Amino acid sequence: MAGRVLHSLALLAVVAPAVLAATTCGGGTLCPSDTPCCSQYGQCGVGAYCLGGCDPANSFSLDSCVPAPVCQSKTYSFDNLDGIVANTKYLGDSSKADWVSSGTPLSYNGAVLLTMAQDTVGTLLASTHYVWYGKVSAKFSTSAGAGVITAFILLGDSKDEIDFEFVGVELESAQTNFYSLGITNYNNGENATGLSDVHENMHEYEIDWQPDTITWSIDGKVVRTLDRESTWNATSNRYSYPQTPARVQLSLWPGGLASNGEGTIEWAGGLVQWDSPYMTNGYYYATFDEVSIECYDPPSGANVNGTKSYIYTDKSMTNSTVEITNDNTILKSFLATGTNMSAGYASSSASASGTAKSSDVATIPGLTGAGPGTNGQRGDNSSDSSDSASSSVSGSATASATGSASTGFVQGDGGSGSNGAAQYGGNSESVLRGSLFAVVVALVGLCIM
Ligand SMILES: *[C@@H]1O[C@H](CO)[C@@H](O)[C@H](O)[C@H]1NC(C)=O
Ligand SMILES: *[C@@H]1O[C@H](CO)[C@@H](O)[C@H](O)[C@H]1NC(C)=O
Ligand SMILES: *[C@@H]1O[C@H](CO)[C@@H](O)[C@H](O)[C@H]1NC(C)=O
Ligand SMILES: *[C@@H]1O[C@H](CO)[C@@H](O)[C@H](O)[C@H]1NC(C)=O
Ligand SMILES: *[C@@H]1O[C@H](CO)[C@@H](O)[C@H](O)[C@H]1NC(C)=O
Ligand SMILES: *[C@@H]1O[C@H](CO)[C@@H](O)[C@H](O)[C@H]1NC(C)=O
Fold first, then answer.
1. Burial group, residue 82, by CB count within 10 angstroms (0-12, 13-18, 19+)
2. Dihedrals φ, ψ of 370, to 5°?
3. Cβ of 386 below 6 Å from ligand 6
4. Residue 34 contacts by C-beta under 8 Å, 6 or more apart in sequence?
């Protein structure tokens, strides 16, 4: 719970100076009806706020969030960037995109590089399809250096989470972890050690997620097993076991930013050095060669009433509140929401940035001033000048050098500094550590003009 509060504080601190204060949500604070969707970063909006990461329990209503595309068994070889769509363009059509990106992914030698240039907060790819139990493996080499975190995780809209994480100063180990509903538990993490240099070498990391057990493996060797039975929490009267549909997320992010909490920086191995020999062409990078997803059948007793999408029937977000439906997953525009998926501009001849009112609406989590795009059809219009980030990937060292909005996403506590830490005292140090905050990705669009 403290973690959630901190998410919001952290984001406020990062985003508030740049924009009008965004409405925050989380921990039982719901979004208002006009910006009904609570993003995974704890802010309210429409459009992309209602897609992947939208938290039904803290949104205006359970159906504010758009239904989530069901699991699809597939191997992604990253031979090019074709399946990767910027979060400023994705409207929920998982048949046209495999991954939604923030930051700067680059294609290199048949793999995708997640890059992190100076003064950016790295790159995140989130799968468009969710997984509700399945075997997910990824072949990659990590980045390296103090403060630099590489991650391969499963993350639910409920904030159930299953992790492989890599700290750039520990090149012979992988950290495994899990969370239930985003509740911090310091005893959940374990280290798999004795690996050959994870930066120099590609390894295959696998998460085998079943209703009763989770198995983490590296190069075919089991390094950890978690039984659901061992996670019973008598206080909450439920298993603290990841049990709700999750997206696969690949990321490279700076745990070691001066603005992060001391505990986060320490966990990350110190401050990020922006002149590190581990940087190439001006950026840190992690190399993802392949990801493979093998979906399992829905658990016995699952609430099945279709084949296309997952929804929640209750805020408790247990396995038994998940329903498989035929509900539509695609929004018509960045002004739409789960309860009005066809909302958009009335006139198709709207001027470049739409009406003044709608351009004030938060449409892309963390990306400030993005507005809904031309005619609310950002997703269909690659020439929209307010688009930013990975659509214009150039390989340049500075993601912000293009002159469009600079999009860095902040992971870690994102500079909650004074307000976060002061309120929670010493405890916040550890609260801010670790993979819980790999989730707190805030795209901060700085209008450089
Ligand atoms: C894993 O390794 C990190 C870094 O050395 C350390 O901080 C952490 O306590 C270790 N975790 C466990 C469970 O041993
Ligand atoms: C059990 O659940 C309670 C209430 O959600 C939570 O505060 C506590 O941290 C949980 N305990 C463990 C060990 O996860
Ligand atoms: C949900 O989990 C419970 C254990 O907490 C199990 O008994 C039940 O079969 C599961 N239901 C589904 C639909 O997975
Ligand atoms: C199943 O889905 C249909 C629409 O696809 C809906 O009308 C019906 O109420 C649903 N049934 C249940 C039990 O949810
Ligand atoms: C959906 O939004 C449009 C405006 O974009 C509006 O005209 C329409 O009435 C809305 N529908 C509902 C059911 O609210
Ligand atoms: C896309 O952008 C161009 C130029 O900005 C504009 O002329 C066109 O109408 C836009 N298309 C849509 C679908 O908004």
1. exposed
2. -75, -35
3. no
4. none
* Lowest-confidence segment of 58-67, 88-97, 308-317, 340-349 by average pLDDT: 340-349
326 Cβ inside 6 Å of ligand 4: yes
* Ligand nearest to the CA of residue 181, numbered in listed order: 2
Enumerate residues 6+ apart whose C-beta is below 8 A from 238.
Answer: 180, 232, 316, 318
Q: Which residues are catalytic?
A: 161, 165
Find out whether the beta carbon of 383 lies less than 6 Å from any atom of ligand 6: yes
Q: How far apart are CA 43 and CA 41, in angstroms?
A: 6
Give distance in angstroms: CA of 244 to centre of ligand 4: 20
* Smallest CA separation from ligand 4 atom 7, residue: 305
Q: How far is CA 129 from CA 175, 246, 296, in A?
A: 25, 9, 14
Query: 377: Cβ below 6 Å to ligand 6?
Result: yes
Report d(CA 217, CA 271) in Å as an integer.
30
Alpha carbons 166 and 155: distance in angstroms, whole number: 17
Residues in the chain: 449
What are the beta bridge partners of residue 315? none
Mutate to test the pocket of ligand 2, among 240, 316, 427 (most ligand atoms within 8 A of CB): 240
- In DSSP terms, 301 is beta-bridged to none
Tell me the sheet residues that pair with 204: 139
Span 50-74, pLDDT tens digits? 999 999 999 999 999 999 999 999 9
Instruction: Report the C-alpha gap between 222 and 82 in whole angstroms.
Output: 33
The verdict on the CB of residue 307 being under 6 Å from ligand 4 is: no
* CA 189 to ligand 1 center in whole angstroms: 8
Domain architecture of the chain: domains with CATH: 69-295 (2.60.120.200)
pTM (2 d.p.): 0.81
Ligand showing the shortest atom-to-Cα distance for residue 355? 5
